[in-house]
Amino acid sequence: MVRMLARVIVMPKPVVNDPQGTTVKGGLQRLGFDQVEEVRVGKYIEVRLEAEDEAAARHQVSEMCRKLLANHVIEDVRFQVERAHDREHAGHSQPAAAGG
């Protein structure tokens, strides 16, 4: 078995109203970010799992997305699967801070 890390991004479909995105856009514009034209708010999910190989992990994650992680009627989903590094599996991984 191989330890794998899946990074899943779930976003509302372009034709779906996104009230949270509209609220964030308004807040950014009130803060002086007038150049913001659109904001869409979605979900980022990390799943650590064990699988026989990358293909098996991709299949498992695809099923997770289909059955629970995304509502395919109103959301689009994409994911990537890679080998998990030991430090990531131990819970020491932190998302990189956005800088400017």
How do the helices and strands line up, and which of them pair or pack?
Elements: E1 2-12, H1 19-30, E2 43-51, H2 54-69, E3 75-83, H3 86-89
In the sheet with the most strands, the strands line up as 2-1-3
Shape-level CATH architecture: 2-Layer Sandwich
Largest sheet: 3 strands, antiparallel
Instruction: State the helix count.
Output: 3
Instruction: Give the tally of structural domains.
Output: 1
Per DSSP E runs of 2 or more residues, the count of β-strands stands at 3
Poorly predicted runs are none
Beta-strand fraction estimate = 25-35%
SSE string, helices as H and strands as E: EHEHEH
Overall helicity: 25-40%
CATH fourth-tier homologous superfamily:
Phosphoribosylformylglycinamidine synthase subunit PurS
CATH fold name: Mth169, Chain: A
Cα-atom radius of gyration:
17 Å
> Which structural class fits the helix and strand makeup?
alpha+beta
**Overall shape:** elongated
Mean pLDDT: 90
| Name of the top-level CATH class | Alpha Beta
Measured distance between first and last alpha carbons: 40 Å
